[in-house]
Amino acid sequence: MPPHLQCGIMAVMRIILITGISGSGKSVGLKALEDAGYFCVDNLPPTLLRALVAARLEEGGDNLAVSMDVRSARSLGGLPADLAWLRAQGHDVKSLFLTAKTDSLIARFSETRRSHPLSHRSAVTDSADERRTLTECILAEREMLAGIEEISHVIDTSGMRANKLRAWIKSLVESDQSPLTILFESFAFKFGVPLDADLVFDVRTLPNPHYDEKLRPLTGRDLPVQEFLLAQPDAVALLADIRGFIERWLPSFKNDNRGYLTIAIGCTGGQHRSVYFAERLAAHFRTTEHVLLRHRELD
């Protein structure tokens, strides 16, 4: 009798799907999962997912990571139903969607001199369409994968180095088995709002330590900057308001069966105010929730 059916008990697996926009770092993410002990399969056609899970169960496997992308465009439409079916079987299924800003993607394709999958006419259709520009390919891919993005945890890799992405994905998948992981992320508005943010808070209305020459080279993790902001009544009040808002609505996010909640805190340069707020919020919620912390501009 197969191991997963012995004693009438259906074995369960941790299954992680990595998908997203071409050039966003899916191969890097899959390698990180391989290093973390996952059995990894790249570019699996979605129609083979259930069969692969069954085969891994036959072999006694427990951790599986699969990468899918627009190269399997014709069969991606059935992927949400497959993931729901696997969850109904009791498997721990997580879907990670990697993306990046278009200019970042263009720069990466230029550096590697690789062509976009949709630049080949066979990627989507057998008709002899005119060859698309890279920007057109990226926009078309975003539209084709929008349904998958909606049911996934989004990771914005814009400006993220490969080693940071590997570490970030390992932090996500090696987190404890709490129902919800809260990710606090500081960022600079001048470099754009993170694409992976579920909630965004703006702290640019507060006094900026950047204009103090002694504080300018420091960050929100340094004591002088913290003391500067603690002395600002508006900063104390805003921090309390944001904390209260998250506490008020956190149960709703948990009831929505989310695996992750990304809360982005932004200021002008992403160095002082947003870093301070992210640090303080992470410290507060870490006492009762599973929390991860990322400073986009400092990273």
TrEMBL record:
Domain RapZ C-terminal span(s) in chain numbering: 181-298
Gene3D superfamilies tied to this protein: P-loop containing nucleotide triphosphate hydrolases
Domain RapZ-like N-terminal: from-to ranges: 13-176
Binding site for GTP: 69-72
One term of GO molecular function: ATP binding
Taxonomic superkingdom: Bacteria
Binding site for ATP: 20-27
UniProt cross-references to HAMAP family, sorted A to Z: RapZ_like
Record-linked PANTHER family: RNASE ADAPTER PROTEIN RAPZ
Protein name: Nucleotide-binding protein
Native source species: Oxalicibacterium flavum
Species lineage: Bacteria, Pseudomonadati, Pseudomonadota, Betaproteobacteria, Burkholderiales
